[in-house]
């Protein structure tokens, strides 16, 4: 029997996004794992296949991951899903009221800065 590591392929891990179990590989960012599973996370500066930039913050999520003892700890703040790597057992929420409101504020701020610059 060969493992993913022996064949050069990354081993699969499971994370939970909005309560759905998603199987992915540890080399992915959260937004990639979500997209592969058909879960949409809004974004502006992310482009599949390019190095994540992490500038617009539209892809923010809330996430928690288990520590070594298996206790879940929240990731600090509201991480950008395009620059946050998946972790085994991670739980991600993409569409809570708080996250939607945060994105709305980010979009409003971006819009105002564009209007001011124009
Ligand atoms: S899509 Fe712009 S920060 Fe993630």
UniProtKB/TrEMBL annotation:
PROSITE patterns (alphabetical): 2FE2S_FER_2, COMPLEX1_75K_1
Protein name: NADPH-Fe(3+) oxidoreductase subunit alpha
Gene3D superfamilies in UniProt: 3.10.20.740
Span of domain 2Fe-2S ferredoxin-type: 11-98
GO cellular component, one term: membrane
This protein's UniProt keywords: Iron, Iron-sulfur, Metal-binding
Top-level lineage group: Eukaryota
Pfam families: Fer2_4
Single GO BP term: ATP synthesis coupled electron transport
Molecular functions (GO terms): iron-sulfur cluster binding; NADH dehydrogenase (ubiquinone) activity
SUPFAM superfamilies given in the database record: 2Fe-2S ferredoxin-like
């Amino acid at each position: 029997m060969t493992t993913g590591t022996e064949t050069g392929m990354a081993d699969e891990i499971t994370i939970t996004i909005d309560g759905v179990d998603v199987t992915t590989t540890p080399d992915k960012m959260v937004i990639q794992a979500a997209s592969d599973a058909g879960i949409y996370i809004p974004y502006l500066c992310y482009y599949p296949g390019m190095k994540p930039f992490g500038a617009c913050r539209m892809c923010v999520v809330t996430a928690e991951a288990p520590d070594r003892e298996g206790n879940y700890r929240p990731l600090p703040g509201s991480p950008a899903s395009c620059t946050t790597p998946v972790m085994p057992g991670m739980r991600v929420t993409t569409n809570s009221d708080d996250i939607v409101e945060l994105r709305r504020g980010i979009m409003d701020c971006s819009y105002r800065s564009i209007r001011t610059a124009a």
